Amino acid sequence: MKTLALIATGLMIAPAPARADQPGQDWISIGQAERVLHREGYRLIEIEPEDDHWEGEATRHGRTWDFRMSPKTGRIIAMEPDTD
Hints:
This protein is of the alpha+beta class and 84 residues long. It has a domain at 27-84: Nuclear Transport Factor 2, Chain: A (Roll). It is built from 2 helices and 4 strands. The protein has helices spanning 2-13, 30-39; strands at residues 43-50, 53-60, 63-69, 76-81. A 4-stranded antiparallel sheet has the order 1-2-3-4, covered by helices on one side.
């Protein structure tokens, strides 16, 4: 019985598993974000939700760019050359 109590106690204090950021219900879809980038001349490589914005990589004229995008309006917040 003592072992069972120790196991139960250990389960209660175990850290919660890390959870990946998830897009909000009112965010634009990945497809919409890709269309915004395409209109600006970029091709989407990857995109993921990050805290309060979309974040990812895109290419244009043979260069790779890191970008941040408003999740609700699709406005490109930042576009910087990829340094990786």
